[in-house]
């Protein structure tokens, strides 16, 4: 057990690609931390540097307070679970799990006992004498886990360990991984490009993009207070709605109508270098059917009428899609998000996704009156993607005074 | 459906039979010749009328053949061992590492494989005579290794490429040194490739006639294919065909043994199950 500290860690490959740009990250002892980001953002590279499979170009990596930059993987005492599982095909499940223990020169009895223990925890006891080729995907995944946990390492590294499983199994294994980690209390660094996995598993989530860390925080913080357009769009499913906005006459002109601005926002936007063009971000659940809003709440929000495109009833609530006329929000961050097919699921540009109460009576094809919560909306500067509604790290909406 | 499969079976069975017969008839003919007595050699019968083991007795009585057999086995085994070891290391490097001059190395080895051996015989003859390698084991082992290496490197790197690199990383994470990772994880998986290559290289060395006849002059290093051409009958005027046939049969036996021995180790699909595929 140990903490892991990355101090300005940089990786440039021989061909000149800089995959990771001076990352600073402190992972506490026993913490479950998730690295998430679109494909090619440097997650695996970061993990491999912690593992010792890739050299660190500059910066320092400390595990348990000790500098380990120049240590071979075997001297770092870390276990890793690979996306491909990387089971030794010529060995049985038992031999696979015993392999790290044999290399550590433990005696036979201890090895046996540890392997059986791990097999019991992972429900693999019946398969101990099978070869990996004769196991299902989920079982192989568990063997890979087993090989990591048998030797009680200082930390676990997992590189998209569930991405080869089908959707249902992935959800099952997700809870199992989570439970196992809690049980063992071992520091874990987990890489995924699936934001749902990131949100549900981690104590803290690190959002990466292009070799830079965008934001580090617990899942709720990332969801509620994204520091920029990229994080806002990446976290959450369905994703946040983005609309173009312009500041005119102390109002925020958007395709939905003119939104009022609070005093603080006015001050911020009044500054000389403040952007004129903005992007509004609104999460689907911050809309509501205007008929269902009580008077006290009505005052805190803004109402508009829009044609309903489609209603999807989920039972507990309704996803209602509206068509919005006018321009589309444009920013480099949004293009990045749209380019990453696997990760964020951005709604199509001219549609607005809202999540309304199940009691809502809106129907396809008809116009509906919708309320939106002004305290919960975000404003982003399209030039650098920064969230300008953040106040002392918390998003405060546009109406705050 | 059932009739379709039956007729397909018949068709394939027939084709297989044609191929087998085509390949085996010359071999059987040689075997049959080796059991015939000298007067009946040319009677054109497939099954010998007059069975005899004299030809076999004869070749093992002559020092010439036994000595050549020892040379053949020794030279082929040594050349195979060296070529396979060097080839394994080279193929591993080619499939795993990115080093400057890699494509040059691959290109050159391909070039060597394509080089007509005949054109090298005269220069090699002169070189070996000058440096004292002519008519020695080493004088044959060296060219054999040279020509077997490209073959070995090509076959082996194909095998290495099939082994997921993650396995090696996993072994390192599990606490293995680079050497242990190779020995305990990669080598066992590469074994079928190594054995296949060993068989191919051994057959290449064993069958060579060109170098064997040109770079040797005495029994000291003459291998069987070359020695066969010097065979005479029991007397100078006797037809040596029977003896040559017997020798030809005898020298196919080590090959068959070699292949059978290694073939059992070539288990297909050894890497399946390593990764989700
Ligand atoms: N050996 C290499 N040589 C050069 N560039 C590399 C090498 N390996 C990775 N890269 C580059 O480094 C960047 C980060 O790669 P990395 O594998 O860390 O991405 P990732 O975040 O794990 O993506 P994914 O989700 O697709 O696995 C990519 O742009 C990639 O092209
Ligand atoms: Mg990756």
UniProtKB/TrEMBL annotation, chain A:
All residue ranges annotated as the ABC transporter domain in the record: 4-235
Superkingdom of source: Bacteria
PANTHER family the UniProt entry points to: MALTODEXTRIN IMPORT ATP-BINDING PROTEIN MSMX, TREHALOSE IMPORT ATP-BINDING PROTEIN SUGC
Species this chain originates from: Paractinoplanes deccanensis
Protein's UniProt name: ABC transporter ATP-binding protein
InterPro entries from the UniProt entry: AAA+_ATPase, ABC_transporter-like_ATP-bd, ABC_transporter-like_CS, ABC_transpr_MalK-like, ABC_transpr_MalK/UgpC-like, Mo/tungstate-bd_C_term_dom, NA-bd_OB-fold, OB_MalK-like
Pfam families: ABC_tran (PF00005), OB_MalK (PF17912)
Keyword terms, alphabetized: ATP-binding, Cell membrane, Membrane, Nucleotide-binding, Translocase, Transport
One Gene Ontology MF term: ATP binding
Record Gene3D superfamilies: 2.40.50.100, Nucleic acid-binding proteins (2.40.50.140), P-loop containing nucleotide triphosphate hydrolases (3.40.50.300)
UniProtKB/TrEMBL annotation, chain B:
Pfam families named in the record: BPD_transp_1
Residue ranges of every copy of the ABC transmembrane type-1 domain listed in the record: 69-262
Keyword Cell membrane assigned: yes
Database matches in InterPro entries: BP-dep_ABC_trans_perm (IPR050901), MetI-like (IPR000515), MetI-like_sf (IPR035906)
Keywords associated with the record: Cell membrane, Membrane, Transmembrane, Transmembrane helix, Transport
First-listed, main subcellular location of the protein, grouped into a coarse class: membrane
Transmembrane segments: 12-31, 68-92, 104-125, 137-160, 181-204, 243-262
Annotated compartments: Cell membrane
Membrane topology recorded in Swiss-Prot or TrEMBL: Multi-pass membrane protein
Family recorded in the similarity comment: Belongs to the binding-protein-dependent transport system permease family.
Name of the protein this chain belongs to: Sugar ABC transporter permease
Phylogenetic placement of the source organism: Bacteria, Bacillati, Actinomycetota, Actinomycetes, Micromonosporales
């Amino acid at each position: 057990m140990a903490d892991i500290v990355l101090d300005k860690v940089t990786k440039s490959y021989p061909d000149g690609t800089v995959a990771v740009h001076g990352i600073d990250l402190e992972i506490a002892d026993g913490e479950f931390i998730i690295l998430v980001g679109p494909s090619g953002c440097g997650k695996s590279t970061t993990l491999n540097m912690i593992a010792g499979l890739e050299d660190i170009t500059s910066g320092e990596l400390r595990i348990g307070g000790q500098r380990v930059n120049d240590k071979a993987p075997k001297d770092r005492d870390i276990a890793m679970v690979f996306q491909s599982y990387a089971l030794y095909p010529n060995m049985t499940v038992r031999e696979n799990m015993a392999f790290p223990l044999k290399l550590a020169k433990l005696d036979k009895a201890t090895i046996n006992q540890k392997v059986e223990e791990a097999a019991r925890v992972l429900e693999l006891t019946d398969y101990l004498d099978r070869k990996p080729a004769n196991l299902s995907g989920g079982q192989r995944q568990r063997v890979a886990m087993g090989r990591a946990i048998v030797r009680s390492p200082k930390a676990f590294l997992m590189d998209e360990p569930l991405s080869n499983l089908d959707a249902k199994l992935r959800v099952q294994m997700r809870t199992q991984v989570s439970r196992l980690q809690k049980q063992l209390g071992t520091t874990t660094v987990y890489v995924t490009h699936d934001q749902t996995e990131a949100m549900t598993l981690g104590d803290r989530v690190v959002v990466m993009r292009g070799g830079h860390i965008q934001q580090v925080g617990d899942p709720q913080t990332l969801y509620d207070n994204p520091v920029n357009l990229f994080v806002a769009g990446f976290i959450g499913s369905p994703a946040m709605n983005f609309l173009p906005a312009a500041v005119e006459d102390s109002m925020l002109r958007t395709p939905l109508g003119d939104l009022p601005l609070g005093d603080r926002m006015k001050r911020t936007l009044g500054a000389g270098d403040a952007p004129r063009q903005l992007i509004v971000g609104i999460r689907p659940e911050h809309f509501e059917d205007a008929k269902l809003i009580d008077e006290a709440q009505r005052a805190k929000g803004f109402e508009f009428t829009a044609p309903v495109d489609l209603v999807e009833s989920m039972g507990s609530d309704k996803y209602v899609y509206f068509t919005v006329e006018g321009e589309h929000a444009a920013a480099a961050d949004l293009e990045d998000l749209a380019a990453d097919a696997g990760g964020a699921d951005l709604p199509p540009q001219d549609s607005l996704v809202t999540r309304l109460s199940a009691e809502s009576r809106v129907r396809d094809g008809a116009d509906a009156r919708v309320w939106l919560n002004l305290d919960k909306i975000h404003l982003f500067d399209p030039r650098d993607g920064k969230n300008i509604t953040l106040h002392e790290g918390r998003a405060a909406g546009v109406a705050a005074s | 459906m059932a009739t379709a499969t039956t007729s397909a079976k018949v068709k394939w069975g027939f084709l297989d039979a044609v191929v087998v017969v085509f390949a085996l008839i010359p071999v059987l003919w040689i075997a049959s010749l080796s059991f015939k007595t000298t007067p009946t050699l040319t009677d054109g019968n497939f099954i010998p009328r007059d069975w005899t083991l004299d030809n076999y007795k004869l070749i093992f009585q002559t020092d010439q053949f036994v000595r050549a057999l020892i040379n053949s086995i020794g030279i082929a085994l040594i050349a195979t061992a060296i070529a396979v070891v060097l080839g394994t290391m080279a193929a591993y490097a080619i499939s795993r590492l990115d080093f400057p001059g890699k494509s040059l190395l691959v290109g050159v080895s391909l070039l060597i494989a394509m080089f007509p051996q005949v054109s090298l015989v005269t220069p090699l003859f002169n070189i070996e005579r000058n440096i004292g390698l002519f008519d020695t084991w080493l004088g044959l082992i060296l060219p054999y290794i040279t020509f077997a290496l490209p073959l070995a490197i090509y076959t082996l790197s194909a095998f290495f490429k099939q082994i997921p690199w993650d396995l090696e990383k996993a072994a390192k994470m599990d606490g293995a040194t680079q050497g242990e990772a190779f020995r305990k994880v990669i080598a066992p998986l590469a074994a079928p490739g190594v054995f296949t290559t060993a068989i191919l290289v051994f057959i290449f060395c064993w069958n060579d006639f060109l170098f064997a006849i040109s770079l040797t002059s005495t029994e000291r290093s003459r291998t069987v294919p070359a020695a066969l051409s010097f065979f005479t009958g029991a007397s100078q005027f006797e037809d040596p065909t029977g003896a040559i046939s017997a020798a030809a049969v005898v020298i196919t036996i080590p090959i068959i043994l070699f292949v059978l021995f290694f073939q059992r180790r070539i288990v297909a699909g050894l890497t399946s199950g390593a990764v989700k595929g």
